[in-house]
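User: What would this chain look like folded?
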Amino acid sequence: MDSRARILIMTEGRFGEDLCYCMPIVNLKVIRNLSSLQLCRARRDGTYDMWARLNFDTYERMVLFYNTFVAMKHQDRREIPHENLLDHLELRCEGGEYEIFGGAIKHGELRHALRLFKDRSCGVVRLEASPLRGPMSDVPLWTAFITRYVGDPDWVFYESGGIVSLAAVRPRPYVFLSGYEPPHRGRDEYLLNFATSEDARQFVESWTGLCRQPSPYR
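Assistant: Here's the prediction, encoded as structure tokens.
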């Protein structure tokens, strides 16, 4: 065991033969193109060569692959060899995701960036948390798909002291760091402990504004 993170792709050749391709993921950058993700190698001149293209049937599966890929990339025991291979919110692009809200939340002594995203192409809405500072900054920690709750402003409730409760999150948040669990109360109710009351209120206002928009679940 060398504690390296690799991706293995198995496919079929022109004559029906089995082909396998393997690459350490620290040597690849993800670039989104509509409903596909391109895994690319970087050239010294700053351009990229596509190593593989992955097409996804659903946006949720594409998000989960991307977040898992980036999280594992930063947990590899070897450093990313060049800044051109860093992935920074690659799902946020023209025709793709845009940020509705961004703020800071707390979990014990930890500080995380919380973002609320909506994808232009399919309307999927999700929350994502990542470390606020340090070498893991912007590396996905957890994400929750919450499109089904759009249209219900009461799903979000401001309690006090910067704490916002989410009435239910199903499916439960997907976590990309072994052993971590987002703060929750009971089985399905999750808590967002914002660093400031102002951030908490802005989050509630952003959610209320989103609920006024047309929802695919209406």
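The chain has two domains: 6-85, 97-212. If you want, I can go into more detail on any region.
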